[in-house]
Amino acid sequence: MNPVIINCTGMVAPADVEPLLLISTSASDEPYDICYILATNSLFLQAMGSEENAPIREKLVARLNLDCIAIIFYCKKVKQYQLYNITPAAVTLVEKGFDVKRVASIDLERLLNKHSSESFIRGSAQYHFATPSHNHTNAFFRLGDSIKNRDDLDRVTFWLLKCIDESDYIFIDSWSIAAIPLRALQILSKDTVFDALPAHPAKKIIDCRSVVCAATPELKVSVSPLLLVSVVSSGSLVEKFKEIFQGAYATKKLSIVSVYSFVEQEYSCCCVDRNVVNYHFDSCEFCQKGSKAIEIHPSAYYIKDATDSGVKLTRGIAETGYNFFHKYHHHLNDIVSFHKGDISKGNKHYAYYIDYNQISSLAIFAKALSEQLASKLTNNSVVLSLVHDPVVEAEVRSQDAAFYYLNGPESVLGKEVLECVQKSDKVIIYDSVTINGKSFEKLNNFIRESAELSAAITNIIFMAGVYRPTSALAEKALQSSLAYKDARVLREFSYIEKLVLPDFGPLDCPWCLELGAIKGSIKPALKGSGRFYERVSRLSNLHDGVRGTESIFHIDENTEALTLGSDSYLAPEKTAICGVVLAVASALQQMRTAEDESKRLAPGFPYTQALGAINFSLYSEGLIRAALVRNASAIEFGVIEKEKTLEILLPALEEINQASLLSEYIVAVICGKLPPSSALSDAVTVRLQKLTIDNPEIMKLAIGNEG
Ligand SMILES: [Zn+2]
Ligand SMILES: [Zn+2]
Ligand SMILES: [Zn+2]
């Protein structure tokens, strides 16, 4: 199950659902199969089912194009989750006591992944953590840091509504999650009393006992108290709490719920396997290997004393994409786009996009494809393609091999295809673009589970037109899941082109960030003018995205025809702007996923490894600096390292050959990635004058108060 989950908590108007579709979906290979709408307001439910809202239902059904669109409604009257089905004709109740466990778990895991770089704090070979419960662990998680906005809060709260509704007194494990019971009680229109543990009970048992045994009248008469825990790791907090509680109240029945747990717990809403290991402090394997234990604060669950260091973009990393940019040098403006919705894959949003239809229509690609096929095809091969692609089909047929298009794994069992597979001595599975090889794996599993197919196939190649993994290491993993050693079957994974790229959806897309920031501060006007208005209208076209010279912002037309200078490791001389942006995105992604963790671009505590200021000296060309500023996220600039970076960048802004850097610096400031400078030189101020006249409200953000 891969559901789209749309949070409509507290919402009343059905028309407000559709705008949420885009932010509720994300980039991934796997298509969605069902849609759940989370709702708490009975007016919303009624309105959604009403006669006059039939057009809204029709539109929703048409846009989502899924077999099932359902509402999960929390009904306060009966204290139950209920499942309703939406069709163009009506909204109908299908299940009264709907078990939300599975959907809740998926939704919560997505939330955890969304902010995991900030909320999930991981050790490394150099350090690990000493927790308040006297355990040593390699990772810990702060739920409070995963809740960044109302949507995040509502999602966590929604899945807890039933147990909070059923309780008459609530304990929470930390004040950092107090927003959850507050929001739940607001939704439920209740005023149940709650209290938080002052610290981990193992560290401050007396303080905890005074909370558990508080003289509050509500607690005295409580018959259904609840302990709400954000994350259960070793489980010691819950065990200690139960001990104290049972010692104090022999007859009260305590319910327990945890939002997350790292091991299976009956009371957990979402169990995630993140290889979190706990050791007792006197037998810790991390300590034995020489890793340093860092103490976590017993009540704030924070680490003090954060430091950061800069990570370098090495020549080795910079050069890995060079061949790609060399080969497609003349065509980058056609094949590369950013911030684009792909209609062929469920209209998901791709921050970085290589257009397969464009690249496959090029003679150089066709030549590479032809050579690759010639080296793999036998006299009796069959090519099964997961995509309709006339170029591949023509090439396969010209080399006298059989070709079929597969409409889903099951169609391998179609009579004609199956007979052809049985007669062949080699099967090649072709897919246009793959990020993580999911569709190959799905087909591979299907073949292995079918006796007929696994008997027939003894030689199989999984071939991708464009392979764009999210790390350099991913290929190894995919090789071992598709092309593993098999006594009976020869297996291989290959591709025509490969480039490591981030798989960012709308939440991390640098252009979505830019659009949101400019739109949020521009004065709404019917006929606005100026570069920022033009930019907003460009960026608002999520269908086409941006390409070519639009890949970065330009303060004026002087930088629009810029190309890369000579002698760069990243790409050849005269590479177009979009190529440089993509090359830098690829390099940064390799840094984020470097095998050697001491060289990894990994913002986090306590040793933040940020984008090294040194990169802006090593790569001093304006366009590369602009691309670095564009592609790196706010947190990746670090704290101390960011100051060093600014010491290099700010003085360079007035140089004429750094004009593209100036443009991207302005955008980075508007987006909140970099701070505004109050000391821009007069020369810079003059160049920004036109922008300032056209859109003073935005430029007020972009330049410091003295500027
Ligand atoms: Zn240890
Ligand atoms: Zn060419
Ligand atoms: Zn975007």
Descriptive overview:
The chain has 707 residues and is of the alpha/beta class. Helix content is 39%, strand content 20%. It has a five-stranded mixed β-sheet with strand order 1-2-3-4-5, with helices on both faces. α17 (390-398) links the parallel β20 and β21 (402-405). It binds zinc ion (ZN) (3 copies).
Comma- or semicolon-separated keywords:
4 domains; 20% strand; Cobalt-precorrin-4 Transmethylase, domain 1; binds zinc ion; 707 residues; 26 strands; 5-stranded mixed sheet; 31 helices
What class, by secondary structure content?
A: alpha/beta
Query: Beta-strand level of the residues, as a percent range?
Result: 15-25%
How many individual domains? Answer: 4
Please, how many helices?
Answer: 31
The CA-CA distance between the termini, in Å, is 54 Å
Dominant shape: globular
Oligomeric state, counting identical vs distinct chains: single chain
Radius of gyration: 28 Å
Molecules bound to protein: zinc ion
Name the poorly predicted regions: none
Taking strands numbered 1, 2, ... along the chain, how are they ordered across the largest sheet? Answer: 1-2-3-4-5
Largest sheet at a glance? Answer: 5 strands, mixed
Mean pLDDT: 90
Query: Helical proportion?
Result: 25-40%
